[in-house]
Design goal:
Blueprint: H1 9-33, H2 40-51, H3 56-63, H4 67-79, E1 83-88, E2 91-99, H5 101-122, H6 127-146
Antiparallel strand pairs: 1-2
Amino acid sequence: MLNPRHEDSLPTEQLAEDLRRVIGNLVREVRSGAQTPSSAQSQTLGLLDRHGPSSISDMAAHRHVKHQSMRLVVAQLEQQGLVTRAADPGDARKQLIALSAAGRAALAQDRLQRSDWLALRLAHSSAAERQTLAGAVQILERLLTNAAPG
């Protein structure tokens, strides 16, 4: 329970909870509506797209999963031709996993489907609402930029 002497913190905490809930619901609804469900494979493709070639150990640590679980996901992605494996130039004993052209195309297609689904819903909002959302996107991007890595 909040200390009543810190009433000014309540709106920030409530806003944080509302944002967490609404953004989570929005992400789930967009993925469901666009028929691009999240999976360990799609999350791994996105991670490789954002961070570039990575070792299985680094990806497992970043996604907070066991090395063996990540190894299995990578093996599935490899079988589908969505990732490639190459020696790490800094340490030939290690291997780096990277997106293949097919993996990049699959990721781009999923993102396009989600953007299109959301754009259809945004078309029903007013110009003022879209302008408010554009401002909110800038604020959210700033929050992400100022966030500590991890």
